[in-house]
Structure prediction request, 386 residues.
Amino acid sequence: NAYKKNQLLYYANLLSPVIKKPWFSKIKQKNLQMAYLCAFASLDGLTDESGIYAGIPWFLQKWSRDELISVKAWYHHEKYGLIKSVINKRLSMIQEDGRLPNQDPPTQLASVDSLGWLCLRFYEFIKVLEKKKMLDRVYTREEINEIVVRLKDAIKDLYIKYHQDGLIYTKELETWMDSSSGYDTREGFPIEIQALVLKSLHVLHILSQNINLKKWENDLWQHTVTNFWNHLLLKDGKDDETQRPNIFIAYYVYPKLLYKDEWITALDNALLSLWQPYGGISTIDRESPLFQPIYTGEDNRSYHRGDVLYWVNNLAAISMFRLNKVHYKERINKILDASIHDLLWQGAIGHASELSSAIEQKPAGCFAQAWSSALFIELVEEIFGK
Prediction:
């Protein structure tokens, strides 16, 4: 009984401030309210004072990419110490080539995109703190300057090591699609990596007024548009027209890449290849010989080759909402419904699954995945919290 009372008190203290937020009452669907609160509690269960664990039971580590993507879910819930701790920890782990280790404790495998997420999340955090008039309570001016210098040095190191033919080169298995079948490792020039570096250059120019960073941004933008956009498809890689959902990540982080009508064309054509009727976006074109319609388990044949990952699903809905919420209303609602169904009725009840099979909504992978919950929280707040 004492344990039960303590748990009830804990969750009352955790969720009461959320329920009292003015925008929460705008949500008329009770199941959406409950799914949001479940996602919030699930993410809290994966979070401690030093950061966010990726997922239970298969990812019991703090992965740099997962953590930086997920941490934004805490921005509007006064977890400023946690957010600052995550940013400082990842800053301290930047390697000599500008990349971050994939997880901590570090392994030999690096994450090519974590620096971009770090730059983006730091900049967004500053903007949130400024809006709430809290910036000087969380950071001193000296701290901000030191972080900007560290990030500038890191992006320069990344350029020196990986800038090739006007684009940013990626080694095999270093993007979030890090499974391998020997011939689709995404080695080369992935679209979301170009977008993340573009965003890094953009925000660091704003924060430092270094003119060279603006020149680098313009040059990388021109090479990316020339090599990836054919006015019909936005390619997944410089030499790969296979449609994957990474273009939604590209829009999310760097919408300046294309004009609005071009983005609509690109996303519409990608959805023709990736959309699943229950409200899922598969991780590869349905017509690809690599496509696997059903989750294949530990052999990885379907992982990043068909399986719908909920974090990407929710991020894609955020991108569509920002781009044109009327045009994409049906798709956004379908994605919301799929996430609600997963949180409330599938997998581990009250937690967001890592993924689903492509052609039917069937939970698989981790039972409780941090970035699945985090991006669902962000999606709900994007729609209702403004």
User: Anything to note?
Assistant: The radius of gyration is 20 Å.
